[in-house]
Amino acid sequence: MKYLASFRTTLKASRYMFRALALVLWLLIAFSSVFYIVNALHQRESEIRQEFNLSSDQAQRFIQRTSDVMKELKYIAENRLSAENGVLSPRGRETQADVPAFEPLFADSDCSAMSNTWRGSLESLAWFMRYWRDNFSAAYDLNRVFLIGSDNLCMANFGLRDMPVERDTALKALHERINKYRNAPQDDSGSNLYWISEGPRPGVGYFYALTPVYLANRLQALLGVEQTIRMENFFLPGTLPMGVTILDENGHTLISLTGPESKIKGDPRWMQERSWFGYTEGFRELVLKKNLPPSSLSIVYSVPVDKVLERIRMLILNAILLNVLAGAALFTLARMYERRIFIPAESDALRLEEHEQFNRKIVASAPVGICILRTADGVNILSNELAHTYLNMLTHEDRQRLTQIICGQQVNFVDVLTSNNTNLQISFVHSRYRNENVAICVLVDVSSRVKMEESLQEMAQAAEQASQSKSMFLATVSHELRTPLYGIIGNLDLLQTKELPKGVDRLVTAMNNSSSLLLKIISDILDFSKIESEQLKIEPREFSPREVMNHITANYLPLVVRKQLGLYCFIEPDVPVALNGDPMRLQQVISNLLSNAIKFTDTGCIVLHVRTDGDYLSIRVRDTGVGIPAKEVVRLFDPFFQVGTGVQRNFQGTGLGLAICEKLISMMDGDISVDSEPGMGSQFTVRIPLYGAQYPQKKGVEGLSGKRCWLAVRNASLCQFLETSLQRSGIVVTTYEGQEPTPEDVLITDEVVNKKWQGRAVVTFCRRHIGIPLEKAPGEWVHSVAAPHELPALLARIYLIEMESDDPANALPSTDKAVSDNDDMMILVVDDHPINRRLLADQLGSLGYQCKTANDGVDALNVLSKNHIDIVLSDVNMPNMDGYRLTQRIRQLGLTLPVIGVTANALAEEKQRCLESGMDSCLSKPVTLDVIKQTLTVYAERVRKSRES
């Protein structure tokens, strides 16, 4: 049934896929047609562009030829004019010299002065112009040459041809160009001027060129030429109705020759371009624009789009007709194929399903032996050979039990062990056969499966024993390694609190660093082993992520400052004040990432950025260190993997830190990712879910609203974070660029301020500052870049505002350090190891506590009976009476004093067992002074409060 239904579904899907195939084929034909048309259009555009370029070359040669003529005439004029008085005797005085015609250009033009002063030079030029007219004028197609004096502004006209002169129009145009030349900047006054005036017929005009003539570095005159320009010479004869237009430097039309279908209009897209080819707005014309150097003119060729498409119009019609015919043919073929093949096949599949219902039911129930038993008495009516063999293995009792089960119809299978130790599983279904109630039975030999299950059970027991052995090994190794380490690290801690001789303090520090590194390596190995054996458990509880980040930065800030780096910690306002998770494991992960960033960074800074990302808390650690090659990033979280090989590794470690981080974050339902580039640094991003998140109230600090703060921060990330944080508190934030402040303004900067600030205070963010904000002078505060989120609290202190915060992590700690006197506390130390017992007593003594010691639980009960004890610090594993029984005995005696366990076993089960026995807390060896101080401060305060009550 299932296979037939699937077959019918496949046929129906095939029918639709065949339709889709026909549609795809038609689309392929359509796309091919469009591609062919577009290709033909581009080829046509290329041909037109080539024709445009050839035509523009003729215009360019015309302009260049005129420029060359101007250079020759300028050279002749400069040689013919004298620098002293402008007089040079012409050759051939025997011929009568031609005198040019003089035309005043301005009202104050003095043509008589020019005629008298330059008479000899002008006669010489006139003689040369006559020679030029007779020999070269026809070749260069010049109409006239004119000379304009720079002082008298009078024009001497050397006519080369008898051309009609439109005097007013020519003088007006020349007058405008002279004014333009005189008013041009000094740098442009040495260049040539080119312009065109319209002629008597369309497409015909006059081309003018004007160049300065210098004598002794002084502008003596302006030399110009007039030449007839015919636009019909600027394009090749062809079949296209091409239009040509010459524009000035401002895009204004000077002269044009366009066909009746070409009406070019100015388009800002290409009018300002030096060279442009494309369609005008609305795709009405195809245009080519080119400059005509050395002039500032440009020439534009255009042709109507209709003429461009004229040659491919029939191609478009043929493509449309082809696609219509192809679509009709494909549709007809698909319809015919469905009616003759797919629809009959679906009908056959339906009939086959109906005919095979009974047979499929039997086959589905019998992979091996099949038999039919009568329900009334269990007689075998029909069976195959294998089923007959299995039935002969059954005893008489087995047959009776099988008959009762079949008649009862309560279960559908039974397991039977035959006389030759063969395990049979008999399954059956009830049906009708030959007008009788029968059971269709299936007999399967499951002896192999039974043996496999027994083997799996034995393997499970062996695995459980191995897990117990591994747990015992971890507990033993943890205890045996941490116990001597406690004696080393604890005594080194005590040594560092003493006055040491010169040079010894360096040795003690080196020993302490080495022992701390050894402890970290051991902890990593034990943690990894516990994770692999599933012994490590996440202990979720409510915690503040802000406090965890502040604690981490406070621990690593001295190391960062010592390496002359910068540690920036940005905690966004949307980070929850509390959420459910394991703060110790989260601190372990972030501390490992931050430690690696410090280790692999020599210059620059490290950024710790905490924000929310949807339903996750995102913690990003970014550094400017050496970076990681891409081929090694994929193996970065493998156990024991380290970047580099062999002796090339410059950094210590086991290669387990990141592997542990990945597994811990995975156990927290989070993820960790890395993005790195060699030489640029690395960025690790940790995300954990926001379980039970409690968000801060969106309110600023009352009293800060309306206050003005000036920002002069060079670090862009720090500046952006401060601006957002201050604006959230209602503070007006302005970038400082030397403005005068009001007396209540505060300047926030990350560089040294040289001049005296006239406002209320200056807050300087310093990378080397460690601890809480410090007022080094009245109104001059130093703030750490590791806690910029505490700035609103500092501003509240500066403005003398009482601040209430729902997040104690953002509250600014007091600068007054309360020194507590602990000599009122009597603490009992219970440990069977004499070195550890003495060390713990010395640590308590350095913290100011009174102390008594005991060797084991029995000795501790004796001390308790004779002395008043406030707190008990007890080892867990001791002879005679261990810490668990000691705690239970103390509770049975009715004593409620705090009992704190100290164990060298770092397993979570050990801590849980301590709490279940009645202990208040449990510490793992080695125990440092800071851990003892933090723990005892809490319980000592509790004891003092109980005394008062």
Task: Characterize this entry briefly.
Its EC number is 2.7.13.3. This protein is an alpha/beta fold and 949 residues long.
List its salient traits.
7 domains, 22% strand, 6-stranded antiparallel β-sheet, 6-stranded mixed β-sheet, Profilin-like, Beta-Lactamase, 44% helix, alpha/beta
CATH architecture of the largest domain: 2-Layer Sandwich
Helix content: 40-55%
Largest sheet: 6 strands, antiparallel
Radius of gyration: 51 Å
Measure the end-to-end span. 81 Å
Supply the helix-strand structural class: alpha/beta
Beta content comes to 15-25%
Fourth CATH level, the homologous superfamily of the largest domain: Histidine kinase-like ATPase, C-terminal domain
Number of spatially distinct domains = 7
Strand order of the largest sheet: 1-3-2-6-5-4
Number of strands: 34
Determine the number of helices (DSSP H or I, runs of at least 4 residues): 24
CATH topology of the largest domain, by name, is Heat Shock Protein 90
Which residue ranges are poorly predicted, with pLDDT under 50 across at least 5 consecutive positions?
Answer: 83-95, 645-649, 811-819
CATH class annotation of the largest domain = Alpha Beta
Modified residues (Phosphohistidine): 479
Domain Histidine kinase: 476-692
Domain Response regulatory: 826-940
Keywords: ATP-binding, Cell inner membrane, Cell membrane, Kinase, Membrane, Nucleotide-binding, Phosphoprotein, Transferase, Transmembrane, Transmembrane helix, Two-component regulatory system
